[in-house]
Design a protein that fits this description.
By secondary structure, the chain is mainly alpha-helical. It contains five helices and two strands, in the order H-H-H-H-E-E-H. Strands 1-2 form a two-stranded antiparallel sheet. The longest helix is centred in the N-terminal third of the chain and has 15 residues.
Amino acid sequence: DDPVALNLENFKIMCDSIRFYENMDRDEGVSRLKSIYGEKRVETILGSGIKKLAKSEENNYGRTNRSLHATTFLSKGSILTNENSALLRTEKVLRVGIPPHLAEAFYGKKLKNDIPDGEGIRLEDLF
């Protein structure tokens, strides 16, 4: 098991706490938690609701997300399909490809560059 996983006793405490607070009015629950753990800690945990990268994520952001990669060597002129490509996490030594939400729009397109096995398929690689 993961070294940071809760043991059974602490897991039960967590579940019981969730059940206690889940049906409570949000403001009342937050107020109670602030009185137990302090306002600063609770506000930090709740966050602003705005998604942004943590400082520790910035250097690896593009490399830890999935993108479109060749699953075999693809020669110039090949047609891109979901059989010869996959949405994979980019390794540190491979280039980042097209983001997942755009991949389907490019299936059936012809490649204008050779794509080595495993490399990311970029917009500039397609006609």
